[in-house]
Amino acid sequence: MNMNANSVEVRDLDLHFGDVKVLQKLNIDIHEGEFLVLLGSSGCGKSTLLNCIAGLLDVTDGQIFIKGDNVTWAEPSDRGIGMVFQSYALYPQMTVEGNLSFGLKNARVPKAEIEKRVARAADVLQIEPLLKRKPGALSGGQRQRVAIGRALVRDVDVFLFDEPLSNLDAKLRTDLRVELKRLHQQLENTMIYVTHDQVEAMTLADRIAIMKGGKIMQLGTPDEIYNRPQNIYVAGFIGSPAMNMIEGQIQGAEFVADGLSLPLDGYEFIGAAPASQAAVIGIRPEHVLTGDAAASVAAKAEVEVQIVEKLGSDTLVHASLGTHNLRLRMDGLSAVKAGDRITVGFDTSRASLFDASSEARL
Amino acid sequence: MAETMSPPKSRLLDGPRGSKPKSRFSRRNIFLYGTLLLVSVYYLLPLYVMVVTSLKGMPEIRLGNIFAPPVDITFEPWVKAWAEACTGINCDGLSRGFGNSIKILVPSVALSIAIASVNGYALANWKFKGSEVFFTILIIGAFIPYQTMIYPIVIMLREIKLMGSLWGLVLVHTVFGMPILTLLFRNYFTSLPEELFKAARVDGAGFWGIYFRVMLPMSIPIFVVAMILQVTGIWNDFLFGVIYTKPETYPMTVQLNNIVNSVQGVKEYNVNMAATLLTGLVPLIIYFVSGKLFVRGIAAGAVKG
After folding, report:
1. Residue A241: is the preceding peptide bond cis (ω within 30°)?
2. Full residue range of the structural domain in which residue A308 is found
């Protein structure tokens, strides 16, 4: 698997619906064999970008390349893509077999070859017993498998998924997610996957592109996105419960906010460390230390517990630190209760600092 | 304590169980079925009079008791209406008009539905520049009174040498069916999931491929609705028939009028009734056969199926 070659390239893509600019000068390179997730809240343009790559929407400006070919004006069927939709979009009057072979018949693939490919896809997805049934007689999970199979038989380079798991119940979604991951490891195709579910994004992706307002806010591995968010939007979007954001000042080697003074010696600045600047510090709930761990760090504060949420695996605590609200994640067996005053510590080497005005990472 | 606080009998273990008994002759039922019965009789009485009159001979009709059932059942008026009644110089009954109507009906229905369904499909799924404007113009067409278009169409048909022929009338019916049928089909195709259309495009099906192999099989109900609308509409048409055809090519409705309204000789009420019933037979059969499908189709078109 050559990770350097680009499978899909999008160059300066613009898409306008009348006056509404849905995509603006968007650039993205997707590597060969990569699992790329487009993540964002609704209306951010992620599905629109996918539809542009598929050729289902005519772009206003810019270019799209797939495997080095300029496919900007090409028909969807000539782009070497397969697509899976949220609503499955199976042809209701055809059997599963008919659904799988429809695209191949349109492409005038010889009959023997069609049978071979349908059999292979059915085997990979374990849907052989369903081949003679109609979509109406299938469960949601089975339907989505058939929809994936329809992309599979086309033997394409690039798979496009438009929120494929959103219509399934929670249990099935988790199962199919693992299956998709396995499928990707087995096929080694390029996959572009649109979702608004950050768990899906984190677990499936080689790289995640977080979108907002038709632009990519950050493109990186799940690790980078989670631990080194490039701006406040990404930092706040990823992670549940959300990252704690505290406004304050960088003064020398310290971050100062009311009632709080945090030494920044462990923090890796992108450029040179600013001597004095208005800034926002972002600390994930699990990086707020308690108990013995809190005692061992220099940056400490006392907080008052206000709400305790027991999740079983861990406990979410909402506390107040001066005028700020602080969310922290504690052990599932923790005995803290509302009204307690506890000492918390901050691991600033794992925090994120943002410029207060440009909202970009420092 | 048990004696003093005993609950009412209806709450005891051997109290009410299962479905609540209903009175068949409750006030609600009498009112409901009474009204329905009254309305049905009101609508069915004329039909009854027509049927019994058409089965009587003229002497019996002259007795004047129109509600009495026939004493002497005769099918003579039906035979006469179908094969012998005279209109103008032709004395071969309604059979000629029936033939003409069939020759007008079949191509008109087939053509208008074929064209309108493709129109609706294109307007719903293949939006082009100006498609909304085109659609609006088409819909406005449905609201223009027929009267304003009668004479221009006479001129147009004369220019293309179709005035007075069956094909001229077929053309008129096809064109006039276009607005409402296109609206019907467009709304139906719009209600089908868009992702299905996208999936078919990714699968490499073109305009006609998607129409015939994906859309058509999903649209049987709406085709049935369109067929019923067109069959009854075109069969019952009188105005266009009388204007754009000539005596040899008159449709059944026009011929019926000519039989019933002929001023010469004795008014043969039994023949008139039989002729009217014969003319109404086709829409009647269509409704009886497809009533269930019709209701289902209307519902399918109205809300997302």
Report:
1. yes
2. 244-355
